From TrEMBL, chains A, B:
<keyword id="KW-0479">Metal-binding</keyword>
<keyword id="KW-0963">Cytoplasm</keyword>
<keyword id="KW-0436">Ligase</keyword>
<feature type="domain" description="Cysteinyl-tRNA synthetase class Ia DALR">
    <location>
        <begin position="461"/>
        <end position="528"/>
    </location>
</feature>
<dbReference type="GO" id="GO:0046872">
    <property type="term" value="F:metal ion binding"/>
</dbReference>
<dbReference type="InterPro" id="IPR015273">
    <property type="entry name" value="Cys-tRNA-synt_Ia_DALR"/>
</dbReference>
<comment type="similarity">
    <text>Belongs to the class-I aminoacyl-tRNA synthetase family.</text>
</comment>
<protein>
    <recommendedName>
        <fullName>Cysteine--tRNA ligase, cytoplasmic</fullName>
        <ecNumber>6.1.1.16</ecNumber>
    </recommendedName>
</protein>
<dbReference type="GO" id="GO:0005829">
    <property type="term" value="C:cytosol"/>
</dbReference>
<keyword id="KW-0030">Aminoacyl-tRNA synthetase</keyword>
<keyword id="KW-0862">Zinc</keyword>
<keyword id="KW-0067">ATP-binding</keyword>
<dbReference type="InterPro" id="IPR024909">
    <property type="entry name" value="Cys-tRNA/MSH_ligase"/>
</dbReference>
<dbReference type="InterPro" id="IPR009080">
    <property type="entry name" value="tRNAsynth_Ia_anticodon-bd"/>
</dbReference>
<dbReference type="Pfam" id="PF01406">
    <property type="entry name" value="tRNA-synt_1e"/>
</dbReference>
<dbReference type="GO" id="GO:0005524">
    <property type="term" value="F:ATP binding"/>
</dbReference>
<dbReference type="InterPro" id="IPR032678">
    <property type="entry name" value="tRNA-synt_1_cat_dom"/>
</dbReference>
Length: 580, 580
């Protein structure tokens, strides 16, 4: 193979469909390229730097970005590269690929406004403790949020709190779940909301999820929902019956397509709706409620042009996503169970009121099973997040820390089913510990003159994993490659240069803590317990010294402890120590 | 003095105004009372129990409540008593006195619904980091919330988040503070809200404040605010001008009294309002906005019957307090700077829309100064809560933990001015440590056959302090009496019976942790540092032993450490230890 850029092939690692994004870059002296074209990238063997031709000259990259001579960044894309073999593997745009549920394809991620991402994720309904399956969804989107930020995007991440409107049977009838809980506990519905919102935030904090940029509530956006209903009515795609308003699916389907996300046909949807009492108001069984007139006993109710009532449960997300992210925004996420009917209805509502398709990339997380079976309260095959942390469940042998559970979740791709189970968690705990041990060791490594390992190539493959639809299991496999390097270097089997050591450190730390969102575990309890244990050994030694009349030693121990702020007192009852 | 209940006098400790609540109870055999009356209480020297005459027989108290023979509680009041002298000091109703800002008097606290308390406290406006003065207010109401719960009340505590509507000059003109911040930072106003709400919650958590039962937002209650405006308009006490609606203070004052909380006369209020442009819409300068038509550049706006606009800044609290607590509720609190105009307007709005006086007890916290002067950003005489925790301010010599700062706040009565300063905080830190040391010691005390100290009398005085308008400085003085007892008993100067030791323990712990809301400080950092220090001493000893060829000792140390899960490795580079 020559050094002719014509030979360039896409990197198989990146699964790219066009050759202009990922390049096998020739290692050469750019001065030797006879007719460079603008945008051509090489690895300059004379300066040991990445260079790009800007049309008139070759400009250098410093670190991950390519700079103009005046220090400004050329373009707004960052660059990764690997030092493997005769060629550099480079992704000159660090292109991110995202699996879009709407097209069922991996697509290059191109936000509407360059450099900015608007992301909406359907949050929890706060009428009970957050479900582990939901936690997985939120942890997955936290990872996506983190990676987008890590790539330099300014992300507005909106995750709502559903504090009204969810009717029990997920159709448009039955009792509001929050109201039901409030009735059973004889408290105000908003006390139920507050209690479980706090619980949810608490669990999110334990899992080290970053708070979203905005966390709007359904009840906080009743006016906005009413406005959308008015628009849909104006556009003739909804109708009012007895104080309730329904979306006219068949009418909508005449000009737009209902069912495009879940690939369902309107005609086939009839069997999915049960003939419940009260649904007779609807023209067609596929129709869904935009506004429901409140029954006399319904506590949560608001005035509207049609009745005292409450919004239908699909409407809030349309109202809040478009209010805070615009009529069209980049990413809409949620668990895959929300694809139909919830997200399908959101698309219909947005198109019926604004005329535009609301979302660029639909991202859905897969479900979670427990010991291979669906989780269900009724069968007992069910676990709450706090059960994991306390181990207080017959389904687990011991407790697992939130960091270990998060690590466990990241070991599966967000679009794969994740099966919780004792053995798998135990294995993850070991892996997590091995990773953390290596990170501790990393700070103590000594650099050599040169590297015998390909750190830059490894760094590139970490990015490649994440750029391939946020493939965290592949990333973790790569991070364990890093662990191998660390142990080799520690044992003296391999060498690393000062520069590569910096790359190894920053890449390991960035991907583990910033992107995957793992944390070093708190070992507070174990510290105090261990301190007590070690002190006892020392105090026993001192007692023996005193028995042996070795007062020099016993005084030495006392004095050295005193320097640490630990006072040892000899009382009749025994020895007491106090800490400053 | 005889044992005749006629001699009974009120306890001076309680500052009571009637004799039927607090009693000097004769210590006697109740069988010797010739003509007992229903409700008469004595301390039964034969059973060593508190007894009450229920009309036909003497029934006993167990612990703090008086029980019927069948185990049910007689009445719903709990009882405290003291063993001082010949008489028991008892407050048979444990009556709570609260200073009511509306009447400027201490009043017996009688909730509308027995056993239940509804409390509303004006929360923060989330456009900047929470101010230390506000923190004091919220910590004070947290203490009040805690004490009411401790007394057995079921408390619904509502504290709002003001996320819209506060105009900059606190009059009805100028720019919305949140919108302004959003404009300056070029973000969506609700991102400002989210950021500072999280900051606020974080600070509240650090100060160990319990979350309120409901934490409603202003933007979440636009519909409710519109409904109240409609009612006030219907009642002829507001008027619309150019899309804005104003409260008609003079009209209201014809039948109701405006100014009753702050003791201001309507005629005198004119000079308090500045003649700003745009206020010309008002009939009279005392009038205040209920709804403001939004200027074209105003981002936060909602549809209403009058205009696209936003509610006036007094209205949200009327909407949220009455929605969640009813038209009349027990306690409304806030900083004293909110008395006028905010709370005055709330009273007017509630009376104008519902016809009823909304609040039983108005409680206002006093302000906070720094080194004797008002805090102000402009003069630099200003401190943020986080500055206290980091010590990152020229105004403090060192950092102080949230627990110490909370303790410091509790050392002043909530109605007194609290002056923050270096010396005072250092003194509090010492006091706090002395208290925590005593609580640790308390767990190690050994009981004797009998008590030489009056624990029950002391317990009573702890309740008395709190029942006297939540007098935390007096309570803390009493807790230091308890500290004195603990130290005396530890040193063998005084004795305590098993029963009294239990009372001492439960009273100290309840008042310190449950009521004052103090916490044992985390000493995590110091634990790990100290562990490292102590390990070094031990490892050095082991090295010396090896040098002296005392392998028995060196192996013993290694093995004992290994039992604790601490592995010591001898590497060329030196000794490394790892923890399990």
């Amino acid at each position: 193979m020559g050094n002719n850029p014509e030979d360039i092939k896409p990197s198989s690692l990146l699964e790219l469909e066009s050759t202009d994004k990922a390049l096998l870059l020739p290692r050469l002296d750019p001065a030797k390229v006879t007719s460079p074209e603008e945008g051509m990238v090489v690895y300059d063997t004379t300066s040991d730097k990445f260079k790009i031709y800007n049309g008139s000259s070759w400009i250098a990259s410093a670190g991950e970005s390519i700079y103009n001579d005046d220090g400004t960044i050329f373009g707004d894309r960052t660059v990764t590269f690997s030092g493997a073999g005769e060629y550099m593997v480079a992704d000159s745009s660090r292109q991110l690929f995202v699996y879009n549920s709407l097209t069922s394809k991996k697509e290059v991620f191109t936000p509407i406004l360059e450099g900015y991402v608007g992301m909406y994720v359907c949050g929890p309904t706060v009428y009970s403790n957050v479900h582990l399956g939901n936690v997985r969804t939120f942890v997955s989107f936290d990872m996506i949020f983190r990676y987008l930020k890590f790539l330099g995007y300014k992300v507005r991440y909106v995750r709502n709190i559903t504090d009204a409107g969810h009717l029990e049977n997920d159709a448009d009838e039955g009792e509001d779940r929050i109201v039901k809980k409030a009735r059973l506990e004889q408290i105000e519905p908003m006390e139920v909301v507050q209690y479980y919102t706090l619980d949810f935030h608490n669990i999110m904090r334990k899992f080290n999820c970053l708070p979203p940029s905005i966390e709007p509530t359904a009840t906080g956006h009743i006016i906005e929902q009413i406005e959308i209903i008015e628009k849909i009515l104006e556009n003739g795609l909804a109708y009012e019956v007895n104080g309730s308003v329904y979306f006219d699916v068949l009418k909508f389907n005449e000009t737009k397509k209902y069912g495009k996300l879940s690939n369902r046909k309107v005609e086939e949807l009839i069997h999915n709706t049960r003939a419940l009492e009260g649904q007779s108001d609807k023209k067609n069984p596929q129709d869904f409620a935009l506004w429901k007139k409140a029954e006399p006993q319904h506590v949560m109710r608001w005035v509207s042009p049609w009745s005292q009532g409450f919004p239908g449960w699909h409407l809030e997300c349309t109202a809040m996503s478009t209010k805070y992210l615009g009529k069209s925004f980049d990413i809409h996420g949620g668990g895959m169970d929300l694809k139909f009917p919830h997200h399908e209805c959101e698309i219909a509502q947005a198109e019926a009121s604004n005329g535009t398709s609301p979302v660029g990339y639909w991202i859905h997380t897969n479900m979670l099973t427990l010991n291979g079976k669906k989780m269900a309260k009724s069968t007992g095959n069910n676990i709450l997040p706090t059960d994991l942390f306390t181990g207080n469940t017959p389904l687990l042998q011991k407790e697992f820390s939130p960091s270990v559970v998060r690590f466990f979740m990241m070991q599966a791709h967000y679009r794969s089913i994740l099966d919780f189970g004792n053995e798998a968690l135990l294995a993850s705990e070991k892996g997590y510990k091995r990773l953390m041990d290596a990170l501790n060791l990393l700070n103590r490594l000594t650099p050599s003159q040169s590297s015998s390992i390909d750190v830059k190539g490894w760094e590139c493959s970490c990015y490649n994993a994440m750029n391939d639809d946020f493939n965290t299991p592949i990333l973790i496999a790569q991070l364990f490659e890093g662990v191998k390097y660390i142990n080799w270097i520690e044992e003296g089997q391999q060498e690393i240069s000062e520069e590569d050591l910096q790359i190894l450190k920053s890449t390991m730390n960035s991907f583990v803590f910033e992107v995957l969102g793992l944390t070093k575990e708190q070992q507070d309890n174990s510290y105090s317990t261990k301190l007590e244990g070690v002190l006892k050994i020392l105090i026993n030694l001192r007692n023996e010294a005193r028995l042996n009349k070795d007062y020099a030693l016993s005084d030495k121990i006392r004095d050295e402890l005193s320097v640490l702020g630990i006072q040892v007192k000899d009382l009749k009852k025994g020895i007491i120590y106090t800490l400053d």
